[in-house]
Structure of eIF-4F 25 kDa subunit:
Amino acid sequence: MESSKQTKEFLKSKKGSPLDKDSPPGVARKHKLQNTWTLWRVDHDPKKSWEDILYEVGSFNTVEDFWIQYYSTDPPSKLKIDCDYMLFKKGIRPMWEDLPNKHGGRWTYIVHKEAKSELDTIWLDVLLCLIGEACDHCDQICGALVRIRKSISKVSVWTKNCEDNEANMEIGQKLCELVSVSSKKIITFKSHRQLKPQLKRTPPIFVLKAEP
């Protein structure tokens, strides 16, 4: 896959980052990330509970191990309908009920079926934005998910506090700046509680336009 602008900027920024000094002699030293991240996957099955279809793919805390994890799993465009990937900080489970997520919200890109070719680029740019701590309020980010459905797919970034307008807006603006899209896209921010069935029609808290 062709490298996006965000991929190139991320790699350039990490060239001078501190190496893992704890590596044994003779073992290549790795570029450590500020956080450990866990990749999760869901293969939806109406006959099974959420706990039974959610499983942990693996965790990493270095740049090199991120790329190993990334290239050893299928990109979102290759996933079957009703499958999800989630990348969350280690210790945070990718569900609304988990305490760090409970009072939060999410920024969401909607990718229509006819634009599926850019889904992988958006997802990779979002991952690099997260693990590279690109946002000033990165401590307010819990994780991200990509959700594959029949007519549309969604890429979302989850935050801790839906009422922290300053942090949420800065994160949204950074996503608009760093995530590569081929056409103008709207990203919206809603609290998790707004996504409950009885509240789904309520307007988003923030709406931003991402430029190509």
Summary: The first strand starts at residue 32 and ends at 43. The helical segments are 5-14, 50-53, 63-71, 99-102, 119-131, 165-178.
